Each structure stands twice: as structure tokens, then as C-alpha cells.
């Protein structure tokens, strides 16, 4: 079988769950991330038994990143599994904003709340190698993944096992507090793809419809004892709750910016008292 024939086979087989462009994209990611191959239509493929078994998994809705066990984020590949959210491109925009804000005067301390794969603190540690970077999550399994990524990418970050919904004090302050917490309401499940709903951890995704901003309340409560005087909070937010989230931050912070992502959706909040 040639790669061109295999590509067509992928598109036909995946038709029931992905559209043609998505299937083609998945095929190219699969070739590159699993076998390190570029698409050369006339080349013949080997290992068809492995490929067909992976294709069956894809057909059942398992995300391509769980099959290749890697996801690209910002500048690096991160190991991912069923215990961590697959890093999203929107979150890369948050990294870019922080990088630009601190290009002349790097922060000395950063903490990421709800770190999952560790993609945020590890990317920031690579940008600001002298910063003390910490990362917190309630999921021990997610922290294990973050530890693997920190080791693979040669970054020294402190991992903290802690439930953000409980009161706690780390007895330290941070110049940058960043969080991409769970923010999808149950009522938004209908518009979500099966591969997210069935295979990504609900702990990382969902909040109660009637308490959708709970994690932002907790970030604000954490910041009360843990943000330096001129520190800044950066959060990824639910695009449908931009104004509500901004209003919440304005109860504690003087300057609150609602920032749109590249698709024009309300996606980030930046809050500071200066
Ligand atoms: C939306 S994911 C973000 C993961 C990663 N930061 C990223 O951007 O890809 C939210 C993360 O918050 C963690 N989390 C959920 N509930 C939490 C809690 N009560 N305390 C601390 N972390 C929590 C989840 O385990 C998950 O890793």
C-alpha cells in the first residue's frame, strides 16, 4: 500500500467522526509523530498491522495525541495521556502574552494553578530560565505526567499536589500567577466532540452550570496571600463568560483586561493593581 492509498483509507474510515480536512490533518500528524515520516504519496508503507490497529482506536474516538502519546505545545512536544488535558493552541497565546509583557524584565517567580501536563510552567521556565517556577494540581496522575515532561525537557520546576478548592498557604509570593482552570459548563457538553467528552479527563474540563466561575474565585482567593504587590494574574477563560469573569476580577483588581484569542473570542483575563 502506498502512502497516498493509506491517506485515502484513513479519510474513508474516519468519515463517521471527522470531516475530510480533520481526517487528513490527523493522518499527517500520525505519520510524523508516530513514525517521523513526511507525506510522500508514492512511498510504500510497512507496519500495516500497527497502523490498522491505531486506525481502529482513532475510529473509536481516541484522540490522535493519546495514540502517539505526544502533543505539540508552544515550542516542544509534551507527553500526554488520559490523565491530562491535551494542550490547546489558545493556551499558547497566553504564553506569548506573558513572554511579551516580561521581555525586558523577566519575572523571578511564577506559579501555574491546574497544571495538567505541565505545558504552561515548562514553556515559561524555558522562556525565563532564571525564574522559580511552581505548578499545582489536585491530580497526582497529572503531576506524574508533568514530572515526566519537566524531566524530558530539562526544566526544573516545583510540583505541588494541592486542591485549589481548599484553603491553603504556600508561605511564598509569586510575581506571576497563571491558570487555565476547568471552565466548561455541563450545558456546553452538547457542542463538544466525542473524542473530548469520552477520552479527556472531566476533572480538567467541567464546572457546574450554576457555579461556572468557581475556579476564578479560588485563583483570586489564592492571589490574596500569594501575589506580590506588583504581580499579575493571567487566566484562560470561557469565551461565553468574558464579561462575567471580568466583573469578578474587578471586585479585587483595579486593572482588568479581557483579551481575545486569534479567533476573536474572549479568551484571557489579565488582572493587576498597577
Ligand atoms: C483545563 S486543565 C489545564 C491543564 C493545563 N494547564 C493546560 O493548559 O493544558 C485544568 C487542570 O486543573 C486541574 N484541576 C481540576 N480541579 C482542580 C482542583 N480542585 N485543584 C487543583 N487543580 C485542579 C485538572 O487536573 C487539570 O489538570
From TrEMBL:
It is an enzyme of class 2 (transferase). GO terms for biological process: methylation. CDD domains: AdoMet_MTases. Keywords: Methyltransferase, S-adenosyl-L-methionine, Transferase. Residues 106-189 form the Methyltransferase small domain. The keyword Hydrolase does not apply. The lineage of its organism: Bacteria, Pseudomonadati, Bacteroidota, Flavobacteriia, Flavobacteriales. This is peptide chain release factor N(5)-glutamine methyltransferase. Its EC number is 2.1.1.297. It catalyses: L-glutaminyl-[peptide chain release factor] + S-adenosyl-L-methionine = N(5)-methyl-L-glutaminyl-[peptide chain release factor] + S-adenosyl-L-homocysteine + H(+). GO terms for molecular function: nucleic acid binding; peptide chain release factor N(5)-glutamine methyltransferase activity.
Amino acid at each position: 500500500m502506498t502512502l497516498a492509498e493509506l491517506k485515502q483509507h484513513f479519510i474513508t474510515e474516519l468519515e463517521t467522526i471527522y470531516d475530510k480536512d480533520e481526517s487528513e490533518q490527523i493522518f499527517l500528524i500520525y505519520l510524523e509523530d508516530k513514525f517521523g515520516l513526511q507525506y510522500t504519496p508514492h512511498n510504500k508503507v510497512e507496519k500495516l498491522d500497527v497502523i490498522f490497529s491505531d486506525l481502529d482506536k482513532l475510529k473509536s474516538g481516541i484522540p490522535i495525541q493519546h495514540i502517539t502519546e505526544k502533543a505539540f505545545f508552544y515550542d516542544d512536544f509534551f507527553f500526554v495521556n488520559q490523565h491530562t488535558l491535551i494542550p490547546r493552541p489558545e493556551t499558547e497565546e497566553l504564553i506569548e502574552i506573558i513572554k511579551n509583557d516580561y521581555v525586558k524584565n523577566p519575572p523571578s517567580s511564577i506559579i501555574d494553578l491546574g497544571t495538567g501536563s505541565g505545558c504552561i510552567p515548562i514553556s515559561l521556565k524555558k522562556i525565563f530560565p532564571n525564574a522559580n517556577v511552581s505548578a499545582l494540581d489536585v491530580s497526582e496522575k497529572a503531576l506524574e505526567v508533568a514530572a515526566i515532561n519537566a524531566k524530558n525537557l530539562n526544566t526544573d520546576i516545583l510540583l505541588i499536589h494541592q486542591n485549589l478548592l481548599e484553603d491553603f498557604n504556600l508561605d511564598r509570593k509569586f510575581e506571576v500567577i497563571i491558570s487555565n482552570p476547568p471552565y466548561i459548563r455541563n450545558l456546553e457538553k452538547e457542542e463538544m466532540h466525542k473524542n473530548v467528552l469520552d477520552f479527556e479527563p472531566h476533572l480538567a474540563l467541567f464546572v457546574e452550570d450554576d457555579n461556572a466561575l468557581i475556579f476564578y474565585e479560588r485563583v483570586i482567593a489564592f492571589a490574596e496571600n500569594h501575589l506580590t504587590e506588583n504581580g499579575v494574574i493571567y487566566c484562560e477563560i470561557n469565551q461565553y463568560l468574558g464579561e462575567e469573569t471580568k466583573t469578578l476580577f474587578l471586585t479585587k483588581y483595579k486593572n482588568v483586561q479581557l483579551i481575545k484569542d486569534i479567533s476573536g473570542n474572549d479568551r484571557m483575563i489579565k488582572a493587576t493593581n498597577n
